[in-house]
Request: fold
Amino acid sequence: MHKVNLLPPTATQRFRQKRTVVVWGKLLPVIILTMLLTIGWGQSTAARIKAQIEGQLSLTQRPTEIRQVHQDLKAQFRALNRMQTEQVELRSRFSPLVVVQLLHQLKQDFNGKLQVTSIDFVEQCQPSSASKASSNGHVTLQMIVDGTTNCSDSMQRIREAGLFCDVKLGSALELVDPNSEALRFTLRCEF
Amino acid sequence: MNVSFKKMQVHLAGVSVVIVCASTAYVFGVRPALQAKEQLQQTIVEVEHLRGLAPVLEGEVAALTSGIEAKTKSIQASYPIETQSGQPLIGTVSKLLSARDIELNNLREESDKATGEVTLVLQASSEYANMLHFLSDLRRLDCPGRISGLTLTPLDPLGQRCSARITVKFYPAAILAI
Reply:
């Protein structure tokens, strides 16, 4: 059995065109509806997840506070350290009291054979560059001892104390009195 | 041909609408949901990390608190002598001198306005022990001072009393403030 299309080709084409329009016309509302549903789902999901995030963040309130306190305390500790260092750096690094204590000990050890007639302490007053300088200052000691042996012994003791980077004679040994062995001399000690 | 072209136009329009709808759905629906999900995962990781860190931080906070207390006490103990606020340093030094029974012969103050440094040059006499206590006091002032010069000379043959010429440079800008 043979089928015969008696419609003219233009009519067939118009019919197909109309059918295409009808198909698209039915498809588009579905597509738009799907789009709207997707948007609705997306928005509601995002809102739900944001609520979950808020819930999670509320759990971190205490740890966040602790972290903040921790950071503040660390900053405070650093500031205290800085202040302590600054205070130490601004004050005399080498205390003249140490020199006096050393001389007091020496006098006791020499049983009155050593006499300190003058102590002259000079410190370079530049805190920031003090550490870079070769010498931070010096102490000039005028002393009187009995005999040259005691003179060299006292010098040796001062060197061995380890307070100074250099200890040297600042003057010649002079007899205080022609009738005695007492010698007057000056020591220059660099620190 | 004309009909076929029109049919093609309909398809094109339909496909365009589909593309626009799909893009809109992605931009306003899918993407916010995916972003929120990713953000949630990140938040969960951070929260877990932070909650795990909390006990450690609490321990460190306790250690830091006690460390700060100890350091504050140590600094205050190192420099217990307070300068009189709002008064010149001469006043504080004079008080220290009289507290140690030291006779003041001469006192000169030089201040550098640019740096705020104050230099005191003083000549005084007393017993050795008192003078040494005074020098120690100068180092324990809350206002940092640097003894830049000191000349000690005995005043009697026994060496009980001495005369001292002391140069101290003070840095009032760095007064201890805890």
